[in-house]
Amino acid sequence: MATLQDELIANSEEFRKLAQEHKQYAQRLDSLIQKRYLSEDEKVEEVRLKKLKLRLKDQMEIMEQQHRRQAHQVA
Q1: What start-end ranges are recorded for coiled-coil regions in this protein (predicted)?
Q2: 1 in any annotated domain
Q3: If both were cysteines, with which of 1, 38, 49, 70 could 42 make a disulfide (CB 3.0 to 4.6 Å apart)?
Q4: In this structure, is the dihedral angle defined by the CA atoms of residues 21, 24, 30 and 4, taken in order, positive or negative?
């Protein structure tokens, strides 16, 4: 059974773009987390990436809520 996110990724270019960008930020953040020590620039980047990921997650959640509302109105 496909999840709502899977459905939106398959059917919404905007959601797919947000999900891909979120994944890229997560991968970069993971690579930073693997390091034993971070430079000052890397620490700033870590905070920036966390904020960007959260913003994207919020945008994706809003799209999911809108989709649920639309599906509920149709039903």
Answers
A1: 1-69
A2: no
A3: 38
A4: positive
